[in-house]
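Example S7 (C-alpha cells).
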C-alpha cells in the first residue's frame, strides 16, 4: 500500500509548469525572509512568456511597508492583472 504524502494525488510536485498559448499565469513568491530586500514578487506570464513590464515586486524594507501591507499590495496587484489580462 502506497502511503499518502503531501505530494500524493491530487497534488503533484513538478519542476516547471508547461504553459499554452492561451494561458495566463500569475506567480506570487514570498521573499519576505530575505534580509537584503524582503518582498512579495508578482510575476506575470502570458502565453508562456514572462513579462517584466506586467510584473511587480512589493518590498517592505525600502518602501517602509509592513509585511501585511506589502502582501495586500501584492494581492491587489495580482487581482487587477487578472481582471485586466484575462
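Recovered sequence:
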Amino acid at each position: 500500500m502506497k502511503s499518502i504524502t503531501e505530494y500524493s494525488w491530487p497534488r503533484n510536485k513538478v519542476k516547471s509548469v508547461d504553459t499554452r498559448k492561451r494561458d495566463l499565469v500569475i506567480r506570487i513568491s514570498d521573499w519576505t525572509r530575505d534580509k537584503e530586500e524582503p518582498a512579495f514578487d508578482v510575476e506575470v506570464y502570458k502565453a508562456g512568456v514572462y513579462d517584466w513590464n506586467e510584473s511587480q515586486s512589493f518590498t517592505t524594507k525600502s518602501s517602509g511597508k509592513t509585511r501585511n501591507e506589502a502582501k495586500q499590495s501584492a494581492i491587489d496587484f495580482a487581482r487587477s492583472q487578472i481582471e485586466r489580462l484575462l
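Notes on this example. The chain has a mean pLDDT of 92.
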